[in-house]
Amino acid sequence: MTKVNHSDHNHFLLRSQARDEVITVLKAEKIDLALLEAKYGFVTPQKVLQALQRDAIQGKSDVFQEDIYEKPMVELDKLVEKQRGTHRRMLEQLLMVEQAHKQALYKLEDEKRNHGEFMRKSDEFTNLLEQERERSVTNFFVVIS
């Protein structure tokens, strides 16, 4: 086994750290600007976004966190689906009310027609009674005279 002296160890450690920094800088430069804007939520010069991403990589945080617009979009999609369901239920209720309204109109028209028939028959009966009364009165005066 070979012995590694202290200065070789430090030199190796510094080279390793330098290599890691170069890798993180290259990773930050490789990431698409639109993705960085989506992650941080604002548009700034590319170098600033790359520096933020480089710092996030060096800080050993997740290489790419969830897009800040993703959760609101999911919530918006849920809201749209809920609204569609509500809209569908409202249309069903409107259809039921419309059918009930039509049925009520048919009943009213039927009642109106029946009332018209009743009034016509009532008028005919009244006319017959008046004619009968006139005949009786005429017959009465004929008999008296």
TrEMBL record:
Recorded superkingdom: Eukaryota
Keywords, in A-Z order: Coiled coil
Pfam families from the UniProt entry: CortBP2
Entry keyword Zinc: no
Protein name: Filamin A-interacting protein 1-like
Species whose genome carries this gene: Goodea atripinnis
Record carries keyword Heme: no
Cortactin-binding protein-2 N-terminal domain location: 17-135
InterPro entries: Cortactin-Actin_Reg, Cortactin-binding_p2_N
